[in-house]
């Protein structure tokens, strides 16, 4: 008789890095389809180029560092898709490739590859191009432009290292009287609010926005139902952002937008559901997830209201990532069977 | 490994003293010394070159003088003495740059005076010049200075090419170049330096692995002779 002696866990779930990552990619496909429908071939080219740059960078750094891992784990694909979704649809493709390369190189490879990164790689890439090309990354175009499936947004096709073409005149020649500014920028600089329903669906009004927050929420709900992301993080992010916005709104209704606008505008939904929940860079303790999410939500509102830029989700999540090890340390639950001592409480 | 073995066997030649700073112990990429000017003045290749030359002059002259006076300086006050020597040459450099080019002087700003606080200069004076004869000390200092200059130009070159589309002021990409704003800001210095450090450490590790594999047999052979030496 042979007895196998092993340490726990004895019952394993049929899950693993590859399976989780593949499911995240599947859940992102409807969002990508919606994004392509919004912006046409420019969005498609952006998704393809940024993802290809991420995969190429992954392969390059795996060989350079002689690290284990391969492209088949889908993690670089997720980074690429998420990164492309955070960039403007008409973002010059060469800058997108730079962002993808930096995301994998600076965000992931130098920390030791998959599972070792301190910050969300997609946001590291976006942060770099935000610092390098502040004009291009703030240049949005209206969605649902006529002819979007046959014509590129002119800034997309800028030659490498060259300044992208101006899109404001191009957009005005196609669609009269439609703003190229994002709803957040219009609120910040012009004091104009978009309707919540339009923001939530992204369907009408040629808004210069990313994919519909409603769709992102639905895809996130699927992932949460399958157990591939923890619902506590998006709930904490959105909850704390809404609470803080609701608390500030009565103080100055002229200046501060209502909570609905804060939740549905910009990248908050994508950030809360897909970026903040990155398993590597978020806390593993349940209490820590609430603290981490609340920190991100509150920081987003604070940066949006008092910062120089209209959007603050990216920096909020990066700061949240940086705080993760400390949050985990203070929210460590006591080991099973031991009484909570003074030390574990603190 | 191999380095300590060779230093046991024979003192380094003047040529080895000179080349040490260029690659094997490059001040910026290997020893990570003198970070303040490395990050602060490397916005353009020209600034980097000037800073490198100024530091090389201070380093070489100070190391020569320190080495010459190494037996006269009391151990208790040696750091203060080195600083006085270094400060003298920094002042000379400061006035010389001001006389040669006022633009350059203003571009480099306080960082010329701050050469006196550059740990590379004091470090070489304390760790090398104070225990080496003048010729070797000066050659080593010049090599270190050139290695420092080379590193600065490597960082400044990348930052100028990406940040301004030019190299030593010569435009490379034409008028439609899109500058990478981050490269002329302080984070650009960190990014570029980190990139070079990464490259250097990868190259060093690979050559180390090769050398280790090759020296296993040599080390075995040396063991017997080392034992004799000890006895």
Automatic annotation (TrEMBL), chain A:
Residue ranges of the TM segments: 97-119, 207-225, 231-249, 261-277, 289-307
Membrane topology classification: Multi-pass membrane protein
Cofactor: FMN
Keywords (A to Z) from UniProt: Cell inner membrane, Cell membrane, Electron transport, Flavoprotein, FMN, Membrane, Phosphoprotein, Translocase, Transmembrane, Transmembrane helix, Transport
UniProt-listed InterPro entries: NqrB/RnfD (IPR004338), RnfD_bac (IPR011303)
Main EC class the enzyme belongs to: translocase
Record-listed FMN phosphoryl threonine modification sites: 182
Cellular location(s): Cell inner membrane
EC number(s) recorded for this UniProt protein: 7.-.-.-
GO (cellular component) term, any one: plasma membrane
Homology family: Belongs to the NqrB/RnfD family.
Xref: HAMAP family: RsxD_RnfD
Subunit details: The complex is composed of six subunits: RnfA, RnfB, RnfC, RnfD, RnfE and RnfG.
Function statement: Part of a membrane-bound complex that couples electron transfer with translocation of ions across the membrane.
Name of the protein in question: Ion-translocating oxidoreductase complex subunit D
Organism expressing this protein natively: Rhodoblastus acidophilus (Rhodopseudomonas acidophila)
TrEMBL record, chain B:
Sorted UniProt keywords: Cell inner membrane, Cell membrane, Electron transport, Membrane, Translocase, Transmembrane, Transmembrane helix, Transport
Gene Ontology terms: cellular component: endomembrane system; plasma membrane
Superkingdom of this protein's organism: Bacteria
Main localization, broad class: membrane
Enzyme class, broadest EC rank: translocase
Transmembrane segments: 51-68, 80-102, 108-125, 177-200
Assembly: The complex is composed of six subunits: RnfA, RnfB, RnfC, RnfD, RnfE and RnfG.
Physiological role: Part of a membrane-bound complex that couples electron transfer with translocation of ions across the membrane.
Family note: Belongs to the NqrDE/RnfAE family.
Identification of the protein by name: Ion-translocating oxidoreductase complex subunit E
